[in-house]
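Inputs:
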Amino acid sequence: DTGVSQDPRHKITKRGQNVTFRCDPISEHNRLYWYRQTLGQGPEFLTYFQNEAQLEKSRLLSDRFSAERPKGSFSTLEIQRTEQGDSAMYLCASTSRGGGTEAFFGQGTRLTVV
Amino acid sequence: AQSVTQLDSQVPVFEEAPVELRCNYSSSVSVYLFWYVQYPNQGLQLLLKYLSGSTLVKGINGFEAEFNKSQTSFHLRKPSVHISDTAEYFCAVLSGGYQKVTFGIGTKLQVIP
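Outputs:
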């Protein structure tokens, strides 16, 4: 399967713990996006990378959140000191270029903070 | 700024009946428009997209949408729904000068047997 892959699919963690999610985009795609989706809402943009450069971050991305894409391939999203409000589905998407090209989404990582 | 409004949070419809899911967008520049479908605990799958050209766009699974610039709308339609169409549908917009897609809050389509 050459689609976007996310790991893990589900994560349950205790409040205050750190968690890290991984996204492997489609190999030839140079843009990678992270979105967050809470119940009853559409996906909300968090951040995006063009190759290894993080070009934009949403104000939703507090200081506890950090994303990296060190070699321009896979990306990680880390949440430090998790809070119950961080419970959501975290979606990764990749595209080959900006502007009108379909974004391919992974199946998401569902985070539950207890 | 770019934004999307999906007025209907839930749409129940009987199997084999037609359905329309409404989407209105806001943008001051030219736009690209998308409809995505999401099945439970899954990511998003592209149904169709409008980039330019013909305002009537056909997508997968028998869906189509019409871009109406004067009404800033991009409503999704299907002439006859199937049980398997039960899912959540998201309208999305990408405006010129922006680098990321903005999504609506979604419409849950429930097909009743």
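Remarks. The two ends of chain A are 33 Å apart (CA to CA). Residues 14 and 114 of chain A are 5 Å apart (CA to CA).
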